[in-house]
Design goal:
Mean pLDDT: 76
Number of strands: 0
Radius of gyration: 19 Å
Helix content: 55-70%
Shape: globular
Largest sheet: none
Low-confidence stretches: 5-9, 184-191
Strand content: under 5%
Distance between the termini: 39 Å
């Protein structure tokens, strides 16, 4: 599946260009307006991704506001699970075309922005779920969550069950496995210090790529 995504990336770039032209004409603009978007279809994908991430923040703020005082300082597993599901549901209306979007994001020139979008998304989920840790867990949770999101996203593309029930069950199982693996990343103080420095640089760079500020 991944190999097919890469091999057909150039064809899908042409398709997205055609979509830009058709969309402009439907809205009464000349088709040539697609020239305003020099990067082609990836700009549509990136716009959707950032808009969805912003909508997810609204969801997270609303949910985190009702978390009890007793759990505010804890890493909320239920909120993380719900946030991932909420974010994946935003893809469902475009599920038939989402492999094409993944192909565009996989092209070398688009990878930095795609990765930045993913990293800022998981960082926001962790933050609003109450993760204020300053040790190795800060890093391990975010990296683990990024992998969890992507593997569930790929599983969802092949899920034909009603209301994607198999995908949500898959997500639950992967979350349970992730909890068992988390301890592995907390073994040494040296690793913890390295992770804190690396994570800080990585997530700061991601937000810089997107032109975002730390509004917390």
């Amino acid at each position: 599946m991944v190999r097919n995504i890469f091999s057909q990336a150039s064809r899908w770039t042409v398709i997205y260009k055609s979509c830009l032209i058709d969309g402009a004409e439907i809205l009464g603009y000349p088709g040539i307006i697609h020239g305003m978007y020099a990067k082609g279809g990836i700009e549509l994908v990136q716009h959707f991704y950032m808009t969805s991430n912003n909508n997810l923040i609204d969801f997270l703020k609303a949910r985190s506001a009702v978390i009890s005082t007793e759990s505010n300082n804890e890493f909320s597993r239920s909120l993380i699970r719900d946030a991932i599901q909420e974010r994946l549901k935003m893809i469902i209306p475009f599920i038939d075309r989402w492999p094409e979007a993944l192909a565009l994001m996989s092209q070398p020139q688009n990878v930095p922005t795609a990765l930045a979008n993913l990293l800022t998304m998981v960082d926001d989920i962790c933050y609003y779920a109450g993760d204020r840790s300053v040790n190795m867990s800060w890093y391990s949770r975010r990296v683990g969550l990024a992998g969890l999101y992507k593997v569930t996203e790929l599983y969802m593309l092949q899920d034909t069950s009603e209301d994607f029930a198999r995908t949500w069950n898959f997500l639950n199982r992967r979350m349970e496995e992730a909890e068992h693996l988390e301890g592995y990343f907390l073994q040494t103080e040296n690793a913890s210090q390295f992770a804190k420095q690396f994570a800080s640089a990585t997530f700061t760079t991601a937000r810089n790529i997107l032109g975002l500020r730390w509004n917390r």
